């Protein structure tokens, strides 16, 4: 499974904005391999803030140029997306301090 990120804005250390999609090995945009009605492209805005002296990461996703069926699939998938991103960020929290991720 391949993914494609097309960065629109990087404002270190506040924000990263990108268009996220599935792709083939050559970088061509493709459908989600397990969901034919998943939107082809998602606008992803990740913001980094601090709350009570703790880093906070917020993700905001919007389907781009999606059909009604694609929007419905996206809108009914929030629990799964939340679970996946939470697992990813939990792993990041375990990353040793002093190492740079970017």
Notable traits:
single chain, 102 residues, 5 strands, 42% strand
CATH class: Alpha Beta
Instruction: Name the quaternary structure.
Output: single chain
- Element order: H for helix, E for strand: EEEEEHH
Average pLDDT value? 88
Number of DSSP helices? 2
How many strand segments?
A: 5
Helical content class:
10-25%
Low-confidence stretches: none
What's the CATH architecture?
A: 2-Layer Sandwich
Structural class: alpha+beta
- Radius of gyration from CA coordinates: 15 Å
Cα distance, first to last residue? 23 Å
Principal-axes shape call: globular
Q: How would you describe the overall organization of this protein?
A:
The protein has 102 residues and is of the alpha+beta class. Helix content is 24%, strand content 42%. The protein contains 2 helices and 5 strands. Strands 1, 2, 3, 4 and 5 form a 5-stranded antiparallel sheet that branches. The protein is globular, with a radius of gyration of 15 Å. It starts with a strand and ends in a 9-residue tail after the last helix. The mean pLDDT is 88.
What's the topology here?
Layout: E1 2-11, E2 15-23, E3 29-30, E4 41-51, E5 54-64, H1 68-75, H2 78-93
Antiparallel strand pairs: 1-2, 2-3, 2-4, 4-5
A few lines on this structure:
This protein has helices spanning 68-75, 78-93, and strands at residues 2-11, 15-23, 29-30, 41-51, 54-64.
